[in-house]
Amino acid sequence: MKRLDALAAVYDRLQDRVVVTIMGAVAAELQSIGHRPNFFYLQHAMGLASSMGLGIALTRPDRHVVVLDGDGSVLMNLGGLTTLARYRPRNLTHVVFDNESLLSVGGFPTATSTGSDLAAIAAAAGVPRTATVTTLDAFTRSVDDAFAAGDLSTIVAKVEAVGPSGYVTELALLENRFQFQRYLRG
Amino acid sequence: MSPVSTTSSRAIYDALKACGIRLISTLPETWLVHLIRMAEDDPEMILVRLAKEEEGVGISAGAHLAGVRSAMLMQNHGFLASINGIVSCAQLYRIPLLMLISYRGEFGERDPWQTEGGGVTEDLLRTLRIPFSFLDRPDHVAARIAKAQTLALSSNKPVALLLCRDLMWEEPS
Description:
B: 8 helices, 46% helix
């Protein structure tokens, strides 16, 4: 499965949800499909996209939050999984694109390439719904299930270690930030 | 009885409430025990207990963008552990952060393990160009917290208040 295809497959389902992504390929690929005011791309601070999602989910229980994370970022904030599970925001879906590498800095393998299982780690941290998916159909189905379940879910999507040719996009960081704030507060 | 001042903790908590703080993220430390219990007992407050303080930067960023005022309560070693998040989330994205940092390791510190962090706290705040002030007397707590919050919001940047031993700790006589 390619991450770009996975993003395209669920893109329409993100229309009315609050989306927070990590930096790098996820941000660039989602923007290549089409930026929306309800998408925020955390272009650094690796590990904190899920914490930002938690901050939004706890303060805006009326909105559904989708965090688009990656294996390298999750590995930098494994403790954050325990915080997520502890507060169990039922309005948050945590998608982890696991390409088993730090793609944007040269493709060096992460610990998921040697067996660390992020869905199992999330489950052991207390996340009530977890899944690992390897095909586009299974990914789309598990996203639909998570959105319908009304509970905190972590979906680990195993994806190929391929990405866009570049990571810098036309959208300025602060433009994205203030547009997203206006959307959230509007 | 814990030597941590209940009166000063109450003054700090009331000042945070008066500034409209509705979410507090924290990792427990001795001087913060009363503040954390006050947040626990307050149905109007969202209390988020962290595994590591840096998570609090992300949580506050999310809360701010959603229009909710928040504060981080941590020890100065928690500030040290949060620096990447402060720089690459809060400063990069112009997020106001109200950080209340217990200033361990200053004069009077008895715990040997706290003594290194105290020596670098102010220098790091200056290096990061984070405006900061001290809370060392009960009578200026409310005004300083309110003014710190005002600057954080007007500048869209992190600010810090150092909770000092003279305010937080009642030495047994």
